[in-house]
Amino acid sequence: MKAGNFWMYLLIMFGVTYLIRVLPFLIFHKKIENRFIRSFLAYIPYTVLGAMTFPAVFYATGSFWPAFAGVGVALFAAYRGKGLFTVAVCASLTAFVIGLIISLI
C-alpha cells in the first residue's frame, strides 16, 4: 500500500469515527435514553474499522489461499473465545505456513 493511500484511509476512518461520536453531543443536549440508539452509536466505530480493514486482509499475503486460511483460523479462534493477541498470532502463523507450503509446491 502506498503511503499516500494509507494516510487518506486513516483520515477517512478518523473523520467517520470522530463525527459519529461527536455529532450526538452537538445535536442532543440531554442524555439519550433509547437503548437502541445508544447501542448503535457505541458500535459504529468498530463497524467502520472492520469494514475498512477486512477486505485488505485478502490482499495482504499476495495470494488468496493463505489469506483465506488465516481468516478462517481467526474466525474459529475468535468464536472459541480466544483473545485478540492469540487470534492474530494464530491467523498470521496459519497464513505464513500455508504461504510457505504453496511456494514449495
Overview of the structural elements:
With 105 residues, this protein is an all-alpha fold. 81% of the residues lie in helices and 0% in strands. It has 4 helices and no strands. It starts with a helix and ends with a helix. The relative contact order is 0.09.
Outline of the structure:
The protein has four helices and no strands. With 105 residues, it is mainly α.
Main traits of this protein?
105 residues; mainly alpha
Overall radius of gyration: 18 Å
User: What's the SSE pattern?
Assistant: HHHH
Oligomeric state as shown: single chain
Mean pLDDT: 87
Q: How many strands?
A: 0
* Ends distance: 28 Å
Enumerate the spans where pLDDT stays under 50 for 5 or more consecutive residues. Answer: none
The gross shape turns out to be elongated
Largest sheet: none
Give the helix/strand class: mainly alpha
The share of residues in helices is over 70%
Number of helices: 4
| Percent of sequence in beta strands | under 5%
Question: In terms of topology, how is this protein built?
Answer:
Elements: H1 3-27, H2 35-57, H3 64-79, H4 84-104
Helix pairs in contact: 1-2, 3-4
